[in-house]
């Protein structure tokens, strides 16, 4: 009974309890834990490959971005 989103931290750091937003859906939740092959961690930084579990049931699909809820990147469907 394990559900998580795996990927690489591109910038900054993430900790359990951090509020995050899944883009492009905009759903917000909190990070429940950070899991790696070696076990759980208290922090993940840019360059780390990790699996995040969330406090709520959140659908995260391939290509989605998980960002800090307070400072998410801009989302667009076109560019100039």
Number of strands: 8
Question: Which runs of at least 5 residues are low in confidence (pLDDT < 50)?
Answer: none
- Helix count equals 0
Shape: globular
Amount of helix? under 10%
Tell me the series of helices and strands, N- to C-terminal.
EEEEEEEE
User: Helix/strand-derived class?
Assistant: mainly beta
What distance lies between the first and last C-alpha atoms, to the nearest angstrom? Answer: 44 Å
Mean pLDDT over the residues: 94
State the major sheet: 6 strands, antiparallel
Radius of gyration: 12 Å
Our estimate of the beta-strand percent is over 45%
Task: Write structural notes for this entry.
This protein has strands spanning 5-8, 13-14, 19-23, 27-36, 39-41, 44-45, 49-54, 65-68. It is mainly beta. Strands 1, 3, 4, 5, 7 and 8 form a six-stranded antiparallel beta sheet that branches. It has a two-stranded antiparallel sheet with strand order 2-6. A hairpin with a 2-residue loop joins strand 4 (27-36) and strand 5 (39-41). It is globular. The relative contact order is 0.32. The mean pLDDT is 94.
Chain-wise SSE layout:
Blueprint: E1 5-8, E2 13-14, E3 19-23, E4 27-36, E5 39-41, E6 44-45, E7 49-54, E8 65-68
In summary, what is this structure?
This protein is an all-beta fold. The chain is built from no helices and eight strands.
Task: Describe this protein with a few key phrases.
80 residues, mainly beta, two-stranded antiparallel ribbon
């Amino acid at each position: 009974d394990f559900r998580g989103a795996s990927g690489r931290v591109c910038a900054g750091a993430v900790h359990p309890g951090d509020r995050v937003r899944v883009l492009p859906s905009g759903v917000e939740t909190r990070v429940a834990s950070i899991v790696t092959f070696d076990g759980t961690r208290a922090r993940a930084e840019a360059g780390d490959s990790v699996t995040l579990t969330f406090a709520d049931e959140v659908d995260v699909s391939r290509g989605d971005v998980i960002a800090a809820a307070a400072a998410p990147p801009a989302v667009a469907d076109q560019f100039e």
